[in-house]
Structure formats: structure tokens, C-alpha cells
Amino acid sequence: MVFSSPIFLFFFLPLALFCYFFSPWRLKNVVLLLFSLVFYAWGEPMYVFLMLFSILMNYVYGIYIEKYFEQTRKKKAILFIAIVSNTALLGYYKYINFFVDLVNQLFHTAYHVKSVPLPIGISFYTFHAMSYVVDVYRSRNSQKNLFNLALYITLFPQLVAGPIIRYHIIEHQLRERKLRLDQFADGIRVFIIGLAKKVLIANQMGIIADRIFTQPTDSMSTLLAWVGILAYTLQIYFDFSGYSQMAIGLGKMFGFEFPINFNFPYISRSVSEFWRRWHMTLGQWFRDYVYIPLGGGRVATWKVYRNLFIVWMLTGFWHGASWTFIAWGLYYGILISLEKAGLEKILTKCWTPVQHLYVLMIVMIGWVFFRADNFPYAASYIQAMFGLRGGPLVDEQGLFYIIQYSPYFIAAIIGSMPFFDWIKAKLISYRGAIYEVVSYVFYFGLFFETIFYLVTSTYNPFIYFRF
Fold it and tell me: What is the pTM of this model?
């Protein structure tokens, strides 16, 4: 079940809200847990038991870590076993085929394993589970309520694609939270923005990117290659940030406050700044649970760069079991290391548009590796971007996409910048009442435009409407 499907918008969500708000306070977490399990089981009816096993396993680890809290050696041993167990669970389902293929290539063997389907959201709920265990290890304040721990891991707004909410951030909200009308209304507004990002912009950009990235690069024009990667650059931002905003909005509707996950990353002036703005909760997770435990920046210089490379290799591998993802992660490890070594200081002295252009160029080249299925295609696509494949500079297909989808490109480019936040601040400072009227009309219109697209689109989400 996806947030932009009619079954979610018109059946699951209204029913969940109704049952949640009309249940006694002591049962609200139970109601939310049951709906979260149904949400996950809708797409993965069998793998819901795998997630429940992960919850129970980590709950037991937390109990024993607290039991031996004063015995450092035992406590560390349990934490080590917990991390290995969670990593093994994720590794088996997400990476087993990758590692078997790697062994076969290195040792010229012919091992074969049955293809293992990837459970939805396993990367996210495994990271949440490890966050819980590590936070219990670091403090006596553990979550002794199994239902609340299960809710933390399964909470449906953030279960499938984040944001990654660390346990200690949400712990007190699991025990007590206030349900306010203004928070609920704000949640609706945030959800509508996220839904519109996904449906009206990301889906359209995805159509262009999918069509162009399936074409051979031998005769691809330079213009078409740039149109394709621009479309994907916008698609992935509006897809990820749209989903995060929907999750944050849903959280508000149920009384939770989730941290923001994207903060206009395409306006960054360095690659380091870009990653402080892009998928912020993932970056913070790797910082707090990998980079800092390795020593962070408080070690010898060569160890700092080692730590950066480890973090970025793991970041790339976390995104997918492919060498292109690992290369994408190492690509950023190299760039951030260069900026830390002095490149960022040089950039600050450059003209501001040059800084922005540098980041956009770096990021778009990086997205080629992220989007391509293999190295040869990624390399040839980048060559096409710079006119090194022998194709024409401009062709009719590239011009067609620019003209046909120009309203979407313009809307996406404007939406990727804090333009509307600037307008909002101006309206509020001028006259708050005008802002309220304009905002209600805007959100109302945006919601119905999104629903109209969902109903009339060729890619009809009603295929998810099953009973």
C-alpha cells in the first residue's frame, strides 16, 4: 500500500484516524500498532512475521543490556551480538545474491541460491531496531513496554521509506503526546504538499527519466542526456522529499513530531552542505552510530578520511546491493574528503553562482551512477552528457521533452528552492489573515488537483485497490 493510492487515501487513513481518535487513551498505541501491521501486511503478508521477529529479538537484547548495564564486558558482548544479528538479517534478505555472485566471480565457482525477495522497508526498520538497542546501551532509560517498541519500529508513516527516527528522539512521544487541532491541521497541509510532490511532479519527471534511461547512448544527443538526468534529479528529490513530508504530516495527525528529512538540498554551495540537507535523518544515523563511534573527526587525519570512506561506502551499499551504489557512495566519500582537505575553503571564495553550479554538476553526475543499472551504461551516459559518444548536440526528442513537459520542469525547479517559504514569510509579515485565506485556497486546490490526476492518469493507482 502506498500513500498516494486511493485505498490508502479514502479507506485506510480515514478508518485509522476514526478508530484512533475515538478509542480510549490507553488503547491508542494498540490501535495504531494494529493499523501499522495491517499496512505492512497489505503488501507483505508473510514478511510481517519477519518484522515481528526482529522486534521481539531486539526487545530481548534491550532487556539483557539493561540487566547487565553495570557489567561493561557483558553489555558490550550483547550489543555486539545484537548488531551482528540485525546486520545478518538485513544482509541475508538484501545482499545474499550480491555476495554469492561476488564469490562466484572471484573464485570461479558456480554457487547458486534461490532468489530471495526483498521485504519492503527492511533497511528502515532494521536501522530503527539497531537505534533502539544502541540507545539502550548508552542509557538506562530503556523502553520496557513491548507494545511501544513495536509501535516505534512498525509505525506506518515512516515504516517503508523513512524518515529514520532514532529511538531516543521519539521515546517520550510513545509514552505520552498531546493531540492538538492546530497540529492535526498542520499535518494535513504537510501531507498535501508531499502528496502533490509525489503525484504531480515526481511521477511526471519519472516518465521522462525512465524513457531516456532505457535508450542506448550510442546515438543519444547531448541535450537528451541532460534532459534525462535533469528529470531524474528532480524526480528523486520530489519522490523522496514528498514521501518524507507525507510521513511527517501523517505523524502530526496522530500526535507525533518527526524531524524534517530534506531542506532544499539543491540550493547548497558545497557537497558537504548538500548532504547536510539531503536525507538528513539517514546522514545523522550514520554520523551518530558509525562515524562518531569510529572516532569521528577527533582522531589522526588519516583516520578521519578512513572514517569518511567507511561511512560513505556503507551509505552507498545501504541504498542497494550493486557496485554502482557502492561507487556512488565512494564518489561522495572522495568529494567530501577533498572538501574537508581544503576544497571547501576555496569554494567559499568563489562567486556564489559558481558554487551552486559546482554542486549541481557533481550531484547530477552522481545520480547517473545511482540510476544506471551497471558501470558501462553509467560511463557511456556521462560521455553522452558531454558529447563524447558521437551523437548530435541537439535532437528532436530532446526538444520534444523540453517543450511538452516545460510546465512540470518549471514547477519542479521552482519547488526545489525555498521560493514558497519566502512568499509565506512575506504574506505573514504583511497580514496574517490574508495568508490564512490564501493558504486554505491553495491547499484545497492542490489536493483536488492531485486527486484529479490520480483518477484520470494513465498510470492509474486504482490497481492498488484490492479487497
Answer: 0.89
